[in-house]
Write a structure and sequence with these properties.
about 40% strand; Aminopeptidase; alpha+beta; single chain; globular
Length: about 140
């Protein structure tokens, strides 16, 4: 299932304790667009790990591939995910109606997007250490 040219996952690790926090997955929609998805373990919520992981993934994707945009989406009632997408630099793109059916109700998916030009303005680009050896 994992193939760098289609779909891949990065582990999110706390540098102070070496704990696994979650993972950041990404894949390609086309030769100019990719998507990201973030999963953080409950005990690490509300600490900014997901926002930073998304931004680091944007750096990897935009610096490694000739992409013009990166997309993501979540269900309309998932306020934590929406907040993380917005704080990571994405903007609201649209809505796909009635994507999920849970608890006797349909839910829409809300989609978000960041373009290369928007990513180029993010402060994280200046602090990312590139080419650092893995330990």
């Amino acid at each position: 299932m994992l193939a760098a040219d289609k779909y891949s996952t990065f582990a999110i690790q706390r540098l102070d304790t070496n704990q696994l926090v979650g993972y950041e997955e990404h894949g390609f929609i086309s030769n100019i667009a990719a998507w990201v998805g973030t999963f953080i373990k409950h005990e690490h919520w509300h600490q900014g790990f997901g926002i930073e992981a998304k931004q680091l993934c944007y750096c990897y994707l935009f610096e490694s591939f000739p992409l013009i945009r990166v997309d993501s989406g979540t269900l309309e009632h998932h306020s934590r995910a929406i907040n993380g997408l917005l704080k990571s630099g994405m903007t609201f793109e649209g809505r796909v109606r009635q994507v999920s059916y849970t608890h006797n109700r349909y839910f829409d998916e809300v989609t978000y997007r960041i373009f290369r030009e928007e990513w180029e303005q993010l402060p994280i680009r200046q602090v990312v250490k590139r080419g650092a050896p893995c330990t």
